[in-house]
Design brief:
This protein is mainly alpha-helical. It has two domains: about 20-60 and about 175-190 and about 210-285, Orthogonal Bundle (Endonuclease Iii, domain 2), CATH 1.10.1670.10; about 65-165, Hypothetical protein, domain 2 (Endonuclease III, domain 1, Orthogonal Bundle), CATH 1.10.340.30. The chain has 15 helices and no strands. It binds iron/sulfur cluster. Iron/sulfur cluster binds near residues 224, 225 and 243. One of its GO terms (biological process) is base-excision repair, AP site formation. Its EC number is 4.2.99.18.
Length: about 290
C-alpha cells in the first residue's frame, strides 16, 4: 500500500518499498558493477510485472470507439492533454462521424470544434487532410500497417503504434515523452531518439507485452515518475530503479506528488478503476479524471 493514504485499502495493491530497501538494492547494484544484458532483462521484466500490478486498469487514455476515432484523437493530442482531447472528441464525432463527413466539413466549423486544444487551425487542417487521404486512398477505412499509417499526413511512428496497438491488436511500443524518460531512468536505453528507444526496449520484452508495457510506463510517468519531481519515496519499483533518488525519497513528501487516481483524496476514483469501471462510466458518475 502507499504509506499514509487516507484510505489505505484503496491502494493496497500498490507495492510499498521502504527507503532502506531501495537504498540496500542500490548498494547491491553498485557492488555488482556493470549490469549484464541478462540481469537488465530480468530487472526490466520485474519492473513490468510490478507496474502491471500497480495499474491493472491501464489502457489508452484517449477515448475512442474505433480506429478512425483513435487516429483523429491521437493527432489532436499533440501539445495538449488526453483529458482535453476527450472533452472535444464526443462533439466532433457526433457532428462528423467518419472520414467522409470530416473531409467535407467547412474548415471554420472544424476549427471551432477543436479550438480549445490550441494550434487549432493546424490541427483542424491536419485531421481534414487525414480524412481526405483516407477517403481517397483507403475507401474511408483506416489502414492497418505501420507503413501505410506513417504515409498519412500528420501521422508519425508514435501515432501509428498507438493505433496499431490499441485498435488493431498489433503489438507496438509507443515512445512518447513519458515512455522515453522512464526507459532512460530505468536504464533500459541511453538513447533520446524515439526510434532507437523503441528498438532497445523491444529487445527486453516479448512482443505480446509491448502495447501493455506502453500504457504502464505512460501511467507511471503521469502518476508517480514525473519529469521534474518523481515521487521516489512511494514508488513501487524504487528498489529496481537505478534513478531512485531523482525525486524526494521521504514517503510523506513523495506522497504529495502523486497524480490522478493515486492522489490522496482520490480513493473512490481508484476503487472505481480497480473495480473495472471505464473512464466514461466514472465521468458519468461525477468523477473528475484530471491530475
Ligand atoms: S526515478 Fe524514482 S519515481 Fe521514477 S521509477 Fe525511479 S524510483 Fe520510481
Amino acid at each position: 500500500m502507499i504509506e499514509g493514504m487516507d484510505t489505505p485499502a484503496a491502494a493496497a495493491h500498490v507495492r510499498f518499498v521502504t527507503p532502506r530497501q531501495a537504498e540496500q538494492a542500490a548498494a547491491r547494484r553498485r557492488r555488482a558493477g556493470t549490469e549484464t544484458d541478462l540481469s537488465r532483462t530480468r530487472r526490466a521484466r520485474r519492473i513490468q510485472r510490478v507496474l502491471a500490478q500497480t495499474y491493472p486498469y491501464a489502457v489508452a487514455e484517449l477515448d475512442f470507439d474505433d480506429a478512425w476515432q483513435l487516429l483523429v484523437a491521437t493527432v489532436l493530442s499533440a501539445q495538449t492533454t488526453d483529458i482535453r482531447v476527450n472533452a472535444v472528441t464526443p462533439g466532433l464525432f457526433a457532428a462528423y462521424p467518419g472520414p467522409r463527413e470530416l473531409a467535407e466539413a467547412p474548415a471554420e466549423d472544424v476549427q471551432e470544434m477543436v479550438r480549445s486544444l490550441g494550434f487549432y487551425r493546424s490541427k483542424a487542417r491536419s485531421i481534414q487532410a487525414l480524412a481526405t487521404r483516407i477517403v481517397d486512398e483507403y475507401d474511408a477505412a483506416v489502414p492497418g500497417t505501420v507503413e501505410d499509417l506513417v504515409s498519412l499526413p500528420g501521422v508519425g511512428r508514435k501515432t501509428a503504434n498507438v493505433v496499431l496497438g490499441n485498435a488493431f491488436g498489433v503489438p507496438g511500443i509507443t515512445v512518447d515523452t513519458h515512455f522515453g524518460r522512464l526507459a532512460r531512468r530505468f536504464g533500459w536505453t541511453e538513447n533520446e531518439d524515439p526510434v532507437k528507444v523503441e528498438k532497445d526496449v523491444a529487445a527486453l520484452f516479448p512482443s505480446a507485452l509491448w502495447t501493455e508495457l506502453s500504457h504502464e510506463l505512460i501511467y507511471h510517468g503521469r502518476r508517480i515518475c514525473h519529469s521534474r519531481k518523481p515521487a521516489c519515496g512511494v514508488c513501487p519499483v524504487a528498489d529496481l530503479c537505478p534513478s531512485y533518488g531523482a525525486g524526494p525519497t521521504d514517503p510523506e513528501a513523495a506522497r504529495k506528488l502523486l497524480g490522478y487516481e493515486l492522489k490522496p483524496g482520490r480513493e473512490d476514483l481508484l476503487a472505481g478503476f480497480m473495480a473495472g469501471r471505464t473512464r466514461r462510466q466514472l465521468r458519468a458518475e461525477g468523477h473528475t479524471l484530471s491530475a
